[in-house]
Amino acid sequence: MPDGTAAPKKAKRERVPRVKMAEQAPEKRIHNFEEVPFGYTEEQAIVEANRCLICKRPKCVDGCPVNIDIPKFIAQIRDGDFLGAARTVRATNSLPAVCGRVCPQAEQCEVLCVEGIKHEPVAIGNLERFIADWELAQGQIALPEIPPPTGYRIAVVGSGPAGLTVAGDLAKIGHDVTVFEALHRPSGVLAYGIPEFRLPRPVVKSEIEYIQRLGVKFVYDVVIGVTVTVDELFEQGFHAVFIGTGAGLPRMMNVPGENLVGVYSANEFLTRVNLMGASRDGYDTPVRLAKHTVVVGGGNTAMDAARVSLRVSGNPVTLAYRRSMEEIPARREEIHHAIEEGIKFELLVAPLEVLGDERGQVKAIQCIRMGLGEPDDSGRRRPEPIAGSEFVMECDTVIVAIGNSPNPIIPRNTPGLEVSKWGTVVADEATGATSRPGVYAGGDIVSGAATVILAMGAGRKAATAIHEYLQTLPKP
Amino acid sequence: MHRIHSHRVLAEKIHEFWIEAPLVARKYRAGQFVIVRTHEFGERIPLTVVEADANSGRIRLIVQEAGKSTILMCRLQAGEHFLDVVGPLGRATHIENWGNLVAVCGGVGTASLLPIVRAAAAAGNSVYAVIGSRSKDLMILEDEFRAACKEVRVSTDDGTYGIKGFVTDVLRQWIEQGQKFQQAIIVGPVIMMKVAAALTKELAIPALASLNPIMVDGTGMCGGCRVTVHGKTYFACVDGPEFDAHGVDFQELILRNQAYRNLEERALHGLLDKGCQLTAQLEGAKHA
Ligand SMILES: Cc1cc2nc3c(=O)[nH]c(=O)nc-3n(C[C@H](O)[C@H](O)[C@H](O)COP(=O)(O)OP(=O)(O)OC[C@H]3O[C@@H](n4cnc5c(N)ncnc54)[C@H](O)[C@@H]3O)c2cc1C
Ligand SMILES: Cc1cc2nc3c(=O)[nH]c(=O)nc-3n(C[C@H](O)[C@H](O)[C@H](O)COP(=O)(O)OP(=O)(O)OC[C@H]3O[C@@H](n4cnc5c(N)ncnc54)[C@H](O)[C@@H]3O)c2cc1C
Ligand code: SF4
Ligand code: SF4
Ligand code: FES
Question: Over the stretch B160-217, which tens digit does the pLDDT of each residue have?
């Protein structure tokens, strides 16, 4: 560049491409449940961190639901201050190793990245994962200083990302927190839904251990609303209750043949494999070994079900989605990985009927091709069936991944709790306050099925509001 | 961990446990069930709560050895533990004062029906029961039924006790003798429920059936327990387990309950072939 005074400065900022993470080769990884991307080395992380402009007005932070101070932690990585970077991230995000892996960065922080306007955005998620993994590799995560016990007791219902965030935040300021979980293991979708090759169990486990070390107690096998009601929690001396029970009620397709043997909801299929260990030696829970699986849907759940089925069965998997690649809602990375692994995509296709044999077993699925019409409420073009385009795919397993509705147990069993017509708990967006004093809610049970980081963001706001609410109560 | 307070064999392959589960015992109402896991590698298995004692915090379970999980469970002795017990799940039986109620049960379903019979009697119903089993040695809980019912009739497949035949034969005969029933409730093997449902429909007796589909979580999360009733899909763990017997698609339930037959049989044979490994597995399970 011969002209202008800015030239020497620009010359110093040599344009380096975004650092890619090394990955397990597709032909190898389809035979195992080990994580697909290996993570950055320290050198790679520093190179990537150097790409960040450390903006004065960093747009990326606006895109992060928990407002991580992104330029600060990236600058710390750049300067080799990994411990400092870890502290910066952990100040607002209690599950960084999880978010770095599963956040839809491409639509959240990275989409707003200033560097990304002209070039590739900074790999914020990868850097977050790097720093969280680095921290875990150092051994125990250092605990913050916890003030003396306040004497206030809070019950958190559900141990998904929303509940874990509330629990961690409130324990850090000295409150006595107990998490009640219906299943025998903590962390909600992180345990039963998202497979190990995306989110290794030790990562989740160490995050849970950290929250336990903050003083949070976990009680499993308790279904609130059934085993113990919300009213009874107050009677037992809890001062506030947070509801984070998620959107764990699978929607079905409402087509004939849906209850044939071999039709699973994605939740059931993934739970059998992820939570119950069905594909592993020594575990008693069975799962079908499909010859050809058809997964219906296009979100993260559909990608996970397809890729898990591929690994469990070793046989072909087809994904049928009713819109086009433009609209498909899953994380870009998962779609890319699924294609690499050989999942066949049948786009603009909707199921009409599941066909069975005389033993009630799935033998095929009848579908119809779709065209895209006018945009609907969501702004996406509405898929419309093309008359006469019906076709049949032979298969012996169908996995339905078309979404989840809010879990109805708490709404059904908690008098005075306002619930929307969609079955979600009505809560104030800024505070998580519900129609009942002292009862807060957040995550998928309020928003409908969303994301890990949005659930955590809601948890963070609710924790702040619960703390303020407690100050209005008499000292315990 | 839930300590086994007592373990007793009621009949061949049918075992009774009283286990410590104070939270369940406090809340339990007739018709509800628990999901149990005995060890770290185990399945989540649904079992009806037959009785609960809120004072001692104990619940009574009656388990038939059906496959690997229940066989392993039935090897556990008093003083040992179930790893997880969650509940009470499902909706409690909706009990009204129907008048004359007939309880139709068979096999281990007899155990599931006992608490309902007791609750119905306590609510002022005149309760009658037909209990079926394959043979005399397999008949369970007869005395407890007699204590709660106005009259109990029994049938065995092989004629070693009571009337030789099926529960439906007994029911038909009873009605032909002029007995009136305003309501029936049916629990047992699916094929028995199917036949009994058809008979009560023919006789225009309203009937409930308590369904036993394969379950995983028991909280409405997986949909594995889907059943079809009057053409609509329900999740038995949260919408049931009891439904209008006249609307249930029993054929579908039979097929769905066999979904893992081959895999289960393989697991079971693995278990039985290596008798010595069973003990090893159990030991492993206990220490897991
Ligand atoms: C297969 C799959 C893949 C996904 N992939 C991604 C991804 O890549 N990125 C992303 O950001 N998001 C992803 N999501 C969405 C994300 O996981 C959810 O938005 C998030 O987990 C919601 O958190 P939550 O805390 O609200 O609820 P959940 O994680 O659903 O946790 C709720 C917990 O509450 C428990 N519970 C329910 N009822 C009761 C009760 N009555 N008493 C006690 N406990 C109860 C449940 O057992 C569960 O453990 C995925 C979801 C699925 C299903
Ligand atoms: C609400 C409910 C209440 C129940 N209450 C009791 C009870 O009180 N006592 C009791 O002994 N059993 C009860 N059952 C049945 C019990 O859960 C099954 O027998 C058990 O899950 C079988 O597990 P397994 O691994 O030992 O056998 P598996 O190896 O899984 O199965 C052995 C055989 O039993 C069949 N089977 C599998 N699952 C079920 C099922 N859920 N119901 C019926 N047959 C099945 C299979 O087709 C197979 O042929 C109940 C089931 C439900 C849904
Ligand atoms: S938590 Fe998610 S949105 Fe926030 S910075 Fe990290 S990857 Fe981006
Ligand atoms: S917007 Fe992009 S370049 Fe700017 S601070 Fe954020 S990550 Fe760095
Ligand atoms: S057992 Fe999973 S929804 Fe009923």
Answer: 988 888 999 999 999 999 989 999 999 999 999 999 999 999 999 999 999 999 999 9
Q: How confident is the model at residue A107 (pLDDT cuts 50, 70, 90)?
A: confident
Question: Does residue B57 share a domain with residue B29?
Answer: yes
Residues B65-79, mean pLDDT to the nearest whole number: 91
From the CA of A243, the nearest ligand is 1
Q: How far is the CA of A93 from the centre of ligand 3 (A)?
A: 9
Q: Are residues B36 and B110 in the same domain?
A: no
Cα gap A433→A345, rounded to integer Å: 42
ipTM for the assembly: 0.91
Ligand 5 centroid to Cα of residue A407, in Å, is 12
Residue with tokens 């030239």: A7
Could you tell me if residue B225 is inside a domain? yes
Partner-chain contact B223 A252, CB within 8 Å:
yes
- Is B154 in the same domain as B246? yes
On chain B, the residues whose CB falls within 8 A of the CB of A226 are: 27, 87-89
Is residue B46 located within the same domain as residue B163? no
Among A416, A412, A470, A468, CA closest to A445? A412
User: Does the pLDDT value for residue A11 go beyond 50?
Assistant: no
Cβ proximity of B73 and B38 under 8 Å? yes
Q: Is residue B24 part of a domain?
A: yes
Nearest CB to A258: which of B83, B220, B233? B233
**B88 to chain A: closest CA residue:** A227
Domains of chain A in sequence order: 26-138 (1.10.1060.10), 153-248+405-470 (3.50.50.60), 253-402 (3.50.50.60)
The answer to whether residue B204 sits within a structural domain is: yes
* pTM of the predicted structure, to 2 decimals: 0.92
- Angle at A46 (CA atoms; ends A41, A51), nearest 5 degrees: 130
B151 pLDDT above the threshold of 60: yes
Domain harbouring B11, CATH code? 2.40.30.10
Does residue B237 belong to any structural domain of this protein?
yes
| Burial B87-105, CB ≥16 within 10 A → b, else e | bbbbebbebeebebbbbbb
One domain, residues B152 and B207: yes
* B118/B224 same-domain check: yes
Q: Same domain, yes or no, for B211 and B238?
A: yes
Hey, which of A59, A61, A64, A126 would you mutate to test ligand 3's pocket, going by the most ligand atoms within 8 Å of its Cβ? A64
Region B129-134 average pLDDT: 93
Smallest Cβ distance to A271: which of B23, B216, B228? B216
Regarding whether B139 and B52 lie in a shared domain, the answer is no
SS (H, E, C) chain A: CCCCCCHHHHHHCCCCCCCCCCECCHHHHCCCCCCCECCCCHHHHHHHHCCCCCCCCCHHHHHCCCCCCHHHHHHHHHCCCHHHHHHHHHHHCCCHHHHHHHCCHHHCCHHHCCHHHHCCCCCHHHHHHHHHHHHHHCCCCCCCCCCCCCCCEEEEECCCHHHHHHHHHHHHCCCEEEEECCCCCCCCHHHHCCCCCCCCHHHHHHHHHHHHHCCCEEECCCCECCCECHHHHHHCCCCEEEECCCCCEECCCCCCCCCCECEEEHHHHHHHHHHCCCCCCCCCCCCCCCCCEEEECCCHHHHHHHHHHHHHHCCCEEEEECCCCCCCCCCHHHHHHHHHCCCEEEECEEEEEEEECCCCEEEEEEEEEEEEEEECCCCCEEEEECCCCCEEEECCEEEECCCEECCCHHHHHCCCCCECCCCCECCCCCCCECCCCCEEECCHHHHCCCCHHHHHHHHHHHHHHHHHHHHCCCCC
Q: List the domain range (segments joined by +) for residue B30.
A: 2-89
